[in-house]
Amino acid sequence: MKKIFSAAEGCDYFSKERNQTANTVMSNGMGLFDNELPPDEFASRVIDIVRSEGDAGVHRINLAIDGASPKVFEVSQNDINNSIDLLDPNDVEALNLASDRVRKFQKNGLIKSWTDSAGNFGERVTPLKRIAAYVPGGTAPLASTVIMTVVPAQVAGVEEIVVVTPPSGNSLPHPAVLAAAKISGASRVFTIGGAQAIAALAYGTESVPAVDLICGPGSTWVTAAKKLVYGDVGIDGLYGPTETLVIADESADPTITASDLIAQAEHDVIAMPILVAISEEIVDKTEEEIQRQISVLPRGNIARAAFKNRGVAVIVKNTSEAVDVANAAAPEHLCILTADAKELAKRVTNAGGLFIGDWSAEVMADYVAGPSHVMPTAGTARFSSALSVRNFLRVTPVINFDDSTFLELADSAESLANLEGLHGHAAASEYRRRNLIGE
Question: What is the largest CA-CA distance in the chain?
């Protein structure tokens, strides 16, 4: 891991580092285009193909990139139902537990319509009609991501919830992903991945319905496509590689500190594990433990590459400075392993998810704690939040004035309209006011 020896330098580092990796990734065209393209341009060309060619374009892109394409994109209900029988009963039980806990958590976040006591104004809350949850493929069957995206939408009351995920080996997604879709209440499942899946969801094809909002994490090219289609369709956010920041003092067990960092580092070679410690000795002990643990992990090489590529250790004077660095980094996951963890947590302002103390392991939130594990990355926790039931709700202001309320406010409305030189606005009030008072 790269070592930084002051809080000030640490804060500056994270300010400069944001999105650097995503912005420098290039694609060789993946067999589809002749020249190297940055993610945005690659996604733009893919979107154009899908918009103009529909299903045929999706097939063409799949064949060029993967060498294969499913004959039918939609997974049959029979295959979805049968997927549960292909899993160990203990795994099915765990999926049910996770789904139940996420549902309970999200119900507490529901917002409701309201009006003032006189019924003059308020807000109407209504769910979106159709949404899509993108579930990455890659090297792990992310059944948990199905639950973390579908259940909040279902709690919100979304009428149709579409899951889109790449095929796994054969023409179908992994059975665990299909089982999670069944358990969490998804309406339909399509086996498409990449930027072409985002394009199909945004604009529709002969077989894929256009949706109102696309949620979920994905590759650099998926994220680029989400960025480009935003405005034509809603999105939940733009997610980069996963990241975890751990604050550790002398009370922290290096075994736990290391395992929390590895838990996210094993996702991707460009994942970002961050340690903020109050001494170099803590960093050294943690690094020793990291090497010991990853040496026996099946995905140890991925984690090792992540620590080499983007791992950072910031040495600060005290835990107060550690929080300053954490707020500057605005990490996806912030784990506090200090003697004063509960007090320190009160000063945290920028974090996708906050995990306080030894027993609040971030892995619990990945699977069974309750909140969605789809959280803001790359510093976007400064202004955005974890995916929740609220992403799938529209809030519409409602005005229902009676004549007395109108008269009470009309003079002020007209004054402000005239102040701005918008005399047509003023007249829309003045005509009503004069009719009411008989002028």
Answer: 87
